[in-house]
Records
---
Amino acid sequence: MTSRDHFLSRIRTSLKSANLPSSQFDLPRRELSHLSTDSAALAESFTRELTALACEVYQPQNDEEAIEIVLKIINDSNAYDVLTWDESELPLRGLLDALTRVGIKRSNINLSNEVTKRKTQTLELDAPLVGITGAFAGLADTGSLTLLSAPTRSRAASLTPLTHIALLRINNLYPDMASFLTAHPDITQDSSNLIFITGPSRTADIEFTLVRGVHGPKFVHVVLLK
């Protein structure tokens, strides 16, 4: 009996009892992260991984410099309106006032549960070129951002615009996902949606032609705040 015949025989036998054959191979042991928990070391690793993912990372010296960086990104994106989280959810005070001062329109759309209205609102989300959000955490080993949705933290702000600006306090960096989940064991109960964002949206067709920005932002900027 060939290996193929043996494999198919195992499947036929198992299907009679509705149990799939178990794997004959053990998964390799997962190596735990050896990253330091020092903020500077975490920021260095986080920045390195994000840069490799074609993201832009900024480490301003203070909040005033951070606001100037955000305004420049918006200006370089030729955007005149932005989609943002509620001001209380952004870790950068004074940003929304700065947007108003330079004439940038701010939208904070909370999608309706009513189908017709929700569809209309969704179509309107194509307009903003830039979305601004906070971030609950960052994973230093992969450059991933962790976002939790809420009525005042719309998922649309990080998913629909061409450019996503994420504001993250450096003390919310974790070495890896394991350490993050250990620190927040009940995190999935705190929101209707927990998402990990690792770089710009990427997709490839059957010919393996990589395209960015099809199912999400094409450009991701992360501002690390002290």
---
Amino acid sequence: MGEEILINFTPMETRVAVIENGMPQEVYIERVRRRGIVGNIYQGKVVRVLPGMQAAFVEIGLERAAFIHVEDVLPQTATSEEKSNASIAHVLREGQSLVVQVTKDPIGTKGARLTTHLSIPSRYLVYMPGNNHIGVSQRIEDIEERDRLRGIMNELLKEIADGDEGKARGGFILRTVAEGASADELREDVKFLRRLWDKIQRNLKGAKAPSVIYEDLPLNMRALRDMAHGGLERIRIDSRETYQKATEFVKSLVPEISEKLEYYPGERPIFDLFNVEEEIQRALGRKVELKSGGYLIFDQTEAMTTVDVNTGAFVGHRNLEETIFKTNLEAATAIGRQLRLRNLGGIIIIDFIDMEDSDHQRQVLRTLERLLEKDHAKCKVTGVSELGLVEMTRKRTRESLEHVLCETCEQCQGRGSIKMPETVCYEIFREILRQHRAYDTDSYLVLAAQNVVEYMVDDASDHVAELEAFIGKTIRFQIEPMYAAEHYDVVLR
């Protein structure tokens, strides 16, 4: 079984799943009320310059001001020395209008990340109005193919330069899917991108900051543009209207995949195919079970994500080293898939089980690297640290699956744990003693959650009696069903 794309559309949200060999590998979710803005172009306004950080905040009309670094303001042709010597205060000033593009969505408490180096993608190409460079995706490894594509683009750009009578032509990057593309296909993409750029320039004239100049395609169309390729078996869409729009879009931009589009009218929800719904639920948990009996623990924080590998119930058949090696190999495969499925980004630290055999270490690391080669996001493995941890990074442009679907727990405030009833009980005792010293009252009424009250009147009843004798006051209890486990009040009566 090869690769499929499933597109689930409702008026509230669009979901896309990438299936490889019958297993969900990636899930993308875009909700109407919280659409991603990566790729959007804005007329922004500089609201604050930060010389100490070599950065500035730019107002683009969002809840939080966006962030731009000096390197994203300087011309792309600037040398390393010019970049290191440049001061943001000399480049930008407060109140200045600035045309910017979003490179990272707002994530957590951080605002969007911006650049002035605009880029506009199409099927095979990325157009860069700010320079004249011709680049080829590093994932196209065949040298002859890279040279062929560059040759075609150079010829096309000569045609453009002659027709435009010396106008700035802009630069292009050939995307991975351009491998094998014909000159005619690339010519059509160039024409499309230049027409789109002309439209963006017209929108810029007279635009007031902050305002949107260009919005990237919605998720269902981006999936067809960016994820579809000749090796796909099929693309199934469960909305007839979305399917019709996709058919028109594909005919004009990606005609080679037209026959792979299918309308899915089945009674069974499309995301129940290949257990996508079930995989999403699993991806929201900390623990991932391995077939061998081992397991992974994922802990996601704002700074980084850590992955801990454990043998669990797996005891192997030969010796401990062989057991550890097999568990780590299986873990490396699972981690490569989970990073994509959960859309985890930034710094990632993996704690494999310690291996004494250096050849085993190399095999596990190579297995992980091989899995990451399939990832659409840019990944870099820096190797094994002195503590035996594998350190890597994965480019983060959008929120992780957990952050898209979940919110911070009101009870634990993101800690992942809550205080035991015993702990809350002793806090209440200390609060009663504190109030006893400060106020004169006849008795106390404790309002708390059911499990806390039950602990105090059962397990801690002797301690309650001792406290009553010590302060000479009566303590009564009342269950408050709406109280969280750690919430309580001590009322003077």
---
Amino acid sequence: MPGKINYTPNTESDIKLMLKEIGVNSIADILIDIPEELLCKQINIPSGISEMELKHSLKSLSDKNASLNKYTSYLGAGAYEHFIPSVVDHLSSRGEFYTCYTPYQPEVSQGTLQGIYEFQSMMCELLAMDVANASMYDGASALAEAAVLAIRYKQKKNILVSKTVHPEYREVLSTYLQELDVNLIEIEMEDGVTSVSNLEARIDNNTACVLIQTPNFFGYLEETEELVGLTHKNEALFVACVNPMSLGIIKPPGEYGADIAVGDIQALGNYVNYGGPHAGFFAAGKEFMRKMPGRFAGATTDTKGRRAFTLTLQTREQHIRRAKATSNICTNQQLLALRTCIYLSTLGKAGMIDVGNLNIHKSHYAMARLCEFVGIEPLFDKPFFNEFAIRFSGNCKIQDINKGLFEAGIIGGLDLSRFYPDIDNAMLLCVTETKTKEDIDNLASAVANII
């Protein structure tokens, strides 16, 4: 056959070749960022043991992990623990759906395509937007794709992003834009939210879009309508990155004038696991429909006049031809999007409102309980959803507090100095509907004992 390459796999030589290509000498060099105490040098499993013995041995190893089944966690910062009805696991694990890949053959994929179509419809209703895609890799890449769309649509070079947007989202955004001839400009924050005055000073007629997260990384609600007005006044697009769990009780992006709404659906029916997997959503006004990244499922009729579903609006070739593609991410997180679809169907409108209110009330109760103690105070004085930041006075170190909490069976909050070096002795905590009053009181007592 012309052009055929004779290739005989050689695992050891292939590995050496790949290691040389990326500039390292061994597999160990790739794992250098993992702390030595966390590395497992070898798993000692005797040969010839039975399946029952093997499962028992592996379970004893897994039991050493600090799972959410054994610890009460108040760690959020982008990955959130929510109650997931058992029907979500039951339906999403059926063989017909158990894939993350988008189907190309509609004649054999009607169930999956309908699942995508229903997901898109639910996200449009939740976000109050005109059109949504079939999901994206995660919330961070969805935000970056929104910036790329704005650059192409507006033909302008300045991207403004608030410092209250998740720091890891901003890192992904920077990576996406590093080879483009654009300027990524950060907007300062003031009392835990975006500084309107700083935005006003930085925005101009060369701004393609303004990227705002609300509730933001600290859990606080941004002054969205004022920010949208200022953005549109300068003929730029407004991109809202939102926590979809909050939208049962907080005004959705479409109602305050956002042009594009993005975020992560991990909170809607998907587990925290070890920080993933995640899936992003991307919704926009109808004028951006043809420029949006990702997949779209549409409703149509077949040759016999029956309702049917198919991929629409763009061809597969559009994603293969990199130079002309709206995005070079060619697939979607279908399985996680399906779980979100089942979750939203199970809760319904009333359920989303109830869960949102539980998150509001329990997180505010936790804040109040913790701030009863001398030496603890709110880091910012702003309305928040289910995350908030507190500051410890004196010589209390967040690392020591979290160590003490862990010994008490509690996973504490995030040390904010990890992402904001100028914020010291402050912790970001998340309280969802999964926490009881007793859990929150135990947290307060444990913190009091430590400090």
---
Amino acid sequence: MLDDPLKPLVQVDNLKMHFPIYGGLLRRRVGEVKAVDGISFEIKEGETLGLVGESGCGKSTVGRALLRLYELTDGTVKIDDYDIAHASPEKLRKMRPTMQMIFQDPQASLNPRMTVGEIIAEPLREHLKMTKLEREDRVGDLMDQVGLNRDFAKRYSHEFSGGQRQRIGIARALALSPKFIVCDEPIAALDVSIQAQVVNLLEELQETMGLTYLFISHDLSMVRHIADRVAVMYLGRIVELAPRDDIYSEPLHPYTKALLSAVPEPDPSIESKVERVILTGDVPSPSNPPRGCNFCTRCPAVMDICKREEPTFREVLPGRFVSCHHYNDVDEIAVKATAEDL
């Protein structure tokens, strides 16, 4: 266990990622896609923050922006008290060992011309001064750690199954002993039978190495299993952030309610009693979001103020944050009653 589990390792303030749109004969800038539009949150040391939402809401963009794989439009990101957003290229390179990423598609993220041993050793060659023998020993240890036979180090990635390839990606991410890892839908491309093995591996590594995760996924059942807290995104903004058990048992935001109601229930007797929240309409374009609340065009509990003013992302109960006008000027006692009415 860590000495101070409440210390924030990752601090994000007003993060924005806007991608320009060019058009016309002169290719002038005619607009922008607001993939991430001003979000703030913290991830504490040793915890897993689950980031969920439907496709296109900006989840993966958040993960890449935290590691500055994109240049931020605005906002600040601090990892282990280092300013990632404004660091120079030289300083950013020195900070890379602290933060790593596990990508969604294990096949696309591995170089097909390199052997498994070369793939895992690449971070070691780039960042550490080690002899060839030391690198080979380290690669063998990493392969042992993720459950791969070290005798397979001379093989190529196409010779492995999807689950094994993801283990190779995990070993590469662990090579420099990072503190923070962004897991960008690491199980989405895997068979259901393999998904549990990869998630269990991530949990074991977190326990033994004290890792901190941002776990991005659209699989709400798996997020419930692995996450300590859950953030729900919709159209570039976080609409709710709360401890896992609270958000699954008593969701506050109307979008969170709709999202959780879509999760299949394996027990047929319970499934028949579940009330589905059916949202009408399509998700608006991130290049032209609606005025006011982003969710106002689909919300079953929309009010006039929702179409005029953007709601404030605020703490309405201890540790529970929500962005919804229904919770404006509501005390703690009335929060749950308001949630039941929505």
